[in-house]
Specification:
Pfam families: HamA (PF08878). With 267 residues, the chain is of the alpha/beta class. It has one domain. It has eight helices and six strands; from the N terminus they run E-E-H-H-H-H-E-E-H-H-E-H-E-H. The protein has a six-stranded mixed beta sheet with strand order 1-2-6-5-4-3. Strand 5, helix 7 and strand 6 form a beta-alpha-beta unit. Helix 1 packs across helix 8 and helix 5 packs across helix 6. The longest helix is centred in the middle third of the chain and has 30 residues. The protein is globular, with a radius of gyration of 18 Å.
Length: 267
């Protein structure tokens, strides 16, 4: 995915408890080819192109109207805009985990939403990496990421909120989220990914490395170093394997709406 090339690491900043944070600038430009490719990738998180005709057929709606009114969070009706921003941030971090860091990141989080203007429960982003695809080893890795977004209003606790939710991922949510992912993958008939998830469902009998992540995605006009400096990870149960990132960029909410609009264009 070419849109991940717009991620540029610009600096590192330490939190108040001296945990390193990677700061990225998102240098998106109005490149129609890249944006159209990204929009299709974005759309397929909610509904695959092979299923859209079948899903929309009984509604009397066009495919575009079906996506706008049934599948995608609303552009105007609260809390739709904030759900849009949150979904965007999660998908962007999932793309970073997959296409930059090289993890396998199954995409099941949005396709089975029953209420479009609500965020999906559970861990935001889950990635897997096998040290050797032909055998199970304790060098295999599970990576969980929590993502918080602040694209319109300032929130100096954006990164801290992500860190706090990442604690829950490590302590509580992992088993539930992996089980839910497997159920969704079964609905997609994705047997290879089911086997991948199952490898990580019993850490006691089949040990692996567990990595944690917390990400803040913020617009430039609400960016402040306080987002980082005030954050603390000293009580995180997986602090030694915790990755912290901030992604900031200009006019990110406009980019979000642009992506959703392009995702409805089937010409």
């Amino acid at each position: 995915m070419r849109h991940v090339s717009w991620l540029e690491q610009v600096e590192t900043i330490d939190t108040g408890d001296r945990k390193r944070v990677l700061v990225f600038r998102y240098n998106h430009v109005n490149d129609n080819d890249i944006l159209d490719e990204w929009a299709k990738h974005f759309r397929n998180h909610y509904c695959s192109d092979t299923e859209i005709d079948s899903e929309a057929s009984a509604t009397g709606m066009s495919k575009s109207d079906y996506l706008l009114n049934i599948k995608f969070p609303s552009r105007t009706d609260a809390p739709g805009p904030s759900v849009r921003a949150g979904d965007f941030g999660e998908i962007l971090v999932a793309d970073y985990l997959q296409f930059v860091l090289g993890y396998d990141v199954p995409r099941t989080r949005y396709e089975f939403k029953s209420i479009r203007n609500e965020s999906t429960k559970g861990i935001d982003v889950v990635g897997f990496r096998l040290a050797n695809p032909s055998e199970i080893t304790n060098a295999d890795e599970l990576f969980t990421f929590e993502v918080k977004c602040s694209l319109t209003s300032s929130n100096n606790a954006t990164l801290q909120n992500a860190i706090d939710d990442s604690k829950k991922d490590f302590e509580i949510r992992k088993a539930e989220s992996l089980a839910a992912m497997k159920i969704r993958l079964r609905a997609q008939s994705n047997l290879s990914k089911i086997a991948l998830v199952e490898r990580f469902q019993n850490q006691i009998d089949r040990p692996y490395r567990q990595n944690s992540g917390a990400a803040a995605v913020v617009a430039n006009h609400v960016w402040s170093q306080e987002i980082i400096i005030k954050a603390t990870a000293k009580e995180h149960p997986n602090r030694s394997r915790l990755t912290l990132i901030v992604i900031k960029g200009d006019q990110l909410m406009n980019l979000v709406h642009n992506l959703y609009d392009r995702a409805c264009d089937f010409t």
